[in-house]
Amino acid sequence: MLSTRLPAYAAPLVALTIGCAGIPEGRQAVDSVDVIGARRVDEGDITDKLATQASPKFLTLFSGVVYDYEIFDRFVFQRDLARVERFYRTKGFYEAHARAGRIFVPDDKHVSVEVVVDEGAPVIVHAVTFPGVEGLPPAIVDAVRRSAAVELRPNEPFDEEAFERAETQVRRALTDRGYAYAKVQRDADVDLVRHTADVTFTVEPDEPAKFGTISIVGLGELPESVVLRTIRIHPGSPYSTAEIDAASQALLELQVFSTVEIRPDVSDPPPPDRVVPLRVRVEVSRLRVIRLGGGVEFDLSKTDLHGRAGWENHNFFGGLRDLQIDFRPGVVFYPVRIDNIVAPTQLLPEEKLRVQLRQPGFLEARMNGFVRPEFNVNPFLPPGLAEDATVIGYYEAKASAGVDRVFFRHLYATLQYNLQVEAPFAYRGELDPALQYVIISSPQLITNFDFRNDKVHPRSGFYIGNDFQVAGGWFGGTARDLRIQPEARGFVPLGRRATLAIRGSVGFLFASNYGDEVKDHINDPLTDANRAARTRDFQTLYFRGFFSGGPSTNRGFPFRGIGPHAIVPFLNPAIAARQLATECDIGNPNFDRDRCSVTVGGFTLWEESTEVRFHVTGPFTAAVFCDMGDVSPESADIRLRHLHLSCGAGARYDTPVGPVRLDIGYRIQPLQVIGYPNEEAAANADPSEGRQPLLFGVLPMAIAFGIGETF
After folding, report:
1. Where does residue 220 fall: left (phi above 0), alpha (psi -120 to 50 degrees), or beta otherwise?
2. What is the pTM of this model?
């Protein structure tokens, strides 16, 4: 048996390093708080109301690390029992009682607490009536009834919070439909003997109103005419709070206001003409911004050092036009990678130049037009590239032009046309003469339904998106294909500190003039006869095919590490086809996978990620996750046996531009391809599966760094 003895000073030093907390003398830390007898009310909702809380656990495992212990107080716990009873009454359980079940003391420093609840019979919603709506149009009466039914349902427990929300919804149903001066009063007749509640919403609708004049405060140098056009509310049109909310959202979408408040001037008593003026107060954000910075990328694909310079003008030549210029020059230290720490043998220059011009109110008041030209110079460094391989790069010219718009607050749509030209060149070695320009011409439709409670730190809700593209055909270009990739995300709060986040996506690429070398001949040896066809297919797939792996997909793999692997001829143009056929034939004793096989992209994608995020303290959060997915060389071929499962943990630090994120993912070896004990065995059986690079040459892991949550 191996044992290690630390010096006497080591223990407190280690405790200080990991942030261990202590328990005051004579007090006990709360290990757990359990609720017994809660059947109709969620136990988590009850414990959230208690002042007595279980000590939080770092990474859900360790108490007293990073977090302070929660200290038990008997007097606070007695008040908690009264809080539980009051909470039950708000949920319709007027006869509920709570008592201390037991306080278990495992030692002098820790306690476990139980709260025993006798819920009793709930008070049930019996009837909901709306006196005062008799003279309203039937459609409005129906809207009023439906708005209340969203919160209060017959034969369900009478919830006081839902009762209050229902009153707001009834009033909103009226103000959305023109009744700006409507009044609603709620009342409930609770019968404790029969355990029923008769609910009444007394409505005084008044008369339909109209919008009046609009006054705007806080514009400064911004043009009022453009803001009024975006608001799109005209004096004399029917009053609607829904229109006011839509106008507020449209102003925020201009990205020039930090705050927007549109307040209707609803006087009491109402004026005879029932005209409602609007007062708009805005706070303008900084219109001109210069950004300077830089960074380092160090991963399994490359190591680079880059700078960044940017300029933004949110009122370019007036009219609230938005101009953004971003320039990122850099240099790649080749062949230095996180799994290949050596002295660089060559410096590969790279750059990205991106410009965006947005015009609000294009074609109609709430539609934005945009143009996005780019010019980039990038090295092609796929995972697994041999050190002696030819290093090629691309001069990339791209441009997109289109429109985007928000519909109904939650639907975002973009329709654009993309033109992309890729010109290959050699950083080192000789450029394969079979490499040609790649021209991709494609219309694209992007739609997103966003019902998350927050876009940066979502805690609840869902998101559904889709990316649809058609390349070639009438639009010209090198590639002719149809590409579609839907995606769904869901978020569920797990108590006060934790959130469950789930993401799933599939992708399908249907190509008509390329791809046979991947679909039908990916494991065939390279020959002089198939060299040109392979070069064309693999080069086109690099820009149109699916890949997975990296910081935003599967964090146990390098960026673009998951996908069909094959011999890429244009990375070895100086080597004779006969030599490649020998060294890159899996059945040959001289087979050299590291020299021959890199990721080439595929035609079918599926991905799934599950993550639990929990707040640590201040700007720090942490997460544990499992990611999996696959990219197939065949069309419409979802291979669920190819899991490529990786699990790990990460940390986040919140900044003004979003959380800075560091994740470490470990590839679970028996669950890469079902039926094989590890990824090496799977790659030996099917060379197109490929062998992934190892962290530090030994660990099936990857380190992912990024800004913003993974999804």
Report:
1. left
2. 0.79
